[in-house]
Amino acid sequence: MKRRTPASVPGTLKRWWADAVGYQVYLRSFADSDNDGVGDFGGLIQKLDYLKRLDVDFVWITPFYPSPGDDWGYDVADFRDVDPLFGDLQKFDLLVAEAHERDIRIVTDLVPNHTSSSHRWFQAALGNSGPADRERYRDYYIWRDPAPGGDPPNNWVGYFGGPAWTLEPDSGQYYLHLFLPSQPDLNWRNPAVATEWDDIVRFWLDRGVDGFRVDVAGGLVKDEQLRSNPQLQPIPPQASRWEQWDCFEHRHEVFQPESQDVFRRWRAICDPYGAFLHGETYHLDPRVMDDLLPPDGMHSGYWFAPMHIEWAPNAIREALRAPSDTLASRLLWATSSHDMPRAPTRFAPPDTGDRPAGTRDDWGAARTLVFNVLTAFLPGTFVLYQGEELGLADGVVAAADKLDPIGPDGDVTAGRDGCRTPMPWGDGPYNGFSGVEPWLRAADRPHRESAAAQAGDERSWLRAYQALMEVQRRVRPGFAVNSAAVEWTDDGSGPIISYRRGRIAVAANVSETFHEVHVPAAATEQYDSAAACPHPHADVRSPCAGDSSSGTRLLAPASAVVWET
Q1: pTM exceeding 0.85
Q2: Nearest Cα to 171, choosing from 194, 138, 197?
């Protein structure tokens, strides 16, 4: 391995992530190189040329650390190693080298809020490695005596539902976990924890990592007094995890200002390496996001509103305008992820049977492409989730095959399995992902959804995204003059959402019918989503959809156009 040091990075660091395109790889479902049913580093290396053709600037890889797999890798047992399922440190070094040869940067997932209960720190905190280790590591985690009557110390609930506390019988104390009981939260008020993590961050930077996505970035530091949250309403019987969470005002266990001290430390470490530090900043209010992303903290944060909206003009406009105006280049724009239903599933129209042509998933994919056209040219960083470029809706997982710990057994819709099914690369069983049954059993996808089929089709979702990324890369140098300058050119309501940024203009029709937009006579069209993709509307390629002599452009439902003046 050729180690990288801060001194080897140019003194004048460019914010390479500004207007860059990222690609999230959910590693265990991406590509299996050794036929054990699990995606791995070898599979990702084999697909780097595919990602290069997609024109991505960086790849964000979900956790690959040793883990019992209770939360599929987000329960980390060792932050400085690789789970044998995915390879080893030498294979990781090869991945970084091969990616860098293709001008693709590697971003890894940091999981600093909690560890696995099998991590040596927690095992030492339990006393399993002797009294001296117990004394040293006990305060790495958050322990409290029971409340009067033996109840948990406060009323906090976990993200996955249920109390956020578990009783440890031997000590008679409760430990805190905002996720599964096997994911105990670290005590970030202990300076020793911060020192450990400084070393972890440097360990991966020295191996050539180009940045970090910080998991649960809003949750690291907890209220010093561990006060109960204000309860807004009683928890209903059989409430889902979201319903339980919404019964409280989350004042004391998340979004504590002291977490910014952690990110300032990491920013000071990352900046000399030119590394991109960004977070899972899970809040839907741009004003709160502004507080989470101060100038000396994380460079950027994910904006999650697009994963929580319906396909409606006002909802789409609200998800775009306010955060873009408030946060500008500090946002990462993503429409899908490994934690939420895929955008074509969420954006699919109701199954009423009155659409002019196409399936619900076709319309969901067309709408997703439109949303991605809108965000691809806004200030910030644009990120695709694996398979989004293929127009994929959620995979079909039988109730008996549910693996996600979220939600009741057998209720696949309550969990995240549908968005995590294996990537379809080609023909044959398991869609070319592996030669054996994958870790997550799912129905095979039709051939037309595979990367191989779409690569050979001039009007496929893959080719449409490749064309979009090509345009985005070609025009982005012009954004450097004033990366935050966006002029919204629609009237703030109605079916057309449009803006201008520099010499680039974007207009999208987010309604169910054709609508006109004004295009200057001297404009040069750069991209037309309806012409690039297998758009489901029967009349999308008719003459009425073309340019007219009056300087107007007729946009089909769920379509977008980009032009340059």
Answers
A1: yes
A2: 138
